[in-house]
Design goal:
202 residues, two-stranded antiparallel ribbon, single chain, mainly alpha
């Protein structure tokens, strides 16, 4: 019984899939037409860009006027690498020294870091004056470590408590500080001291 899916009553095309592959080739005509159209489009675009460039250059040349000795173009590649002038280098060095800070670093900061390390090494490894009038001298770090190992570090003076003012009382810690489940070492020492005093009084 024929199937009529379309309004015109045409039967759908029957496809033979028994061969397992397409029996028709690719439509080479369509591919060739597309490639030819693409080449024509590229050629027309190139010619159009070339023409627009010519028109723009002609307009610029008309505004600038004819070339003279001041507008002559020079091929700088023929000059090669020009030698550095010592006078120019000295002038640049003077300008960089007299230019106000902050200055732009010319060597990525490597020389500044090297100078900093050199100054630090001079301070750490040599004797230098701190104050000539008072006789204070900065000693090398190796000598300072030897003195600390021999004499030890200075001890800070004991803190002196001021006398109590009228009406003040010495602060005292009441025990227990906790609820009794975990007494601190200070609480244990205070409890032991209280027991000792009670025993002595008896």
């Amino acid at each position: 019984m024929p199937m009529h899916d379309e309004p015109g009553g045409h039967e759908p095309e029957k496809v033979d899939a028994s061969a397992g592959f397409e029996r028709t080739d690719t439509n080479t005509t369509g591919v060739a037409v597309f490639l030819i159209a693409l080449l024509i489009f590229a050629a027309v675009t190139g010619l159009l860009c070339y023409g627009i460039g010519k028109v723009i250059n002609a307009h610029l040349n008309k505004e600038d006027g004819p070339n003279s000795k001041w507008t002559k173009s020079v091929d700088v590649r023929q000059l090669g690498n020009m030698p550095s002038s010592p006078e120019l280098q000295n002038k640049v060095a003077e300008l960089t020294q007299t230019f106000p800070t902050p200055r732009v670093q010319t060597d990525d900061g490597n020389q500044d870091v090297a100078d900093l390390h050199a100054r630090e090494s001079l301070l750490l490894d040599h004797y230098s004056w701190i104050d000539r009038k008072s006789g204070k001298v900065r000693i090398p770090i190796e000598r300072a470590m030897e003195l600390v190992a021999h004499r030890g570090l200075p001890v800070a003076p004991a803190v002196q408590t001021a006398p109590l003012m009228t009406g003040d009382s010495k602060p005292a810690v009441t025990i227990p500080l906790t609820d009794g489940f975990a007494p601190t070492a200070y609480e244990q020492a205070q409890a032991q001291q209280a027991k000792t005093q009670q025993t002595a009084q008896k």
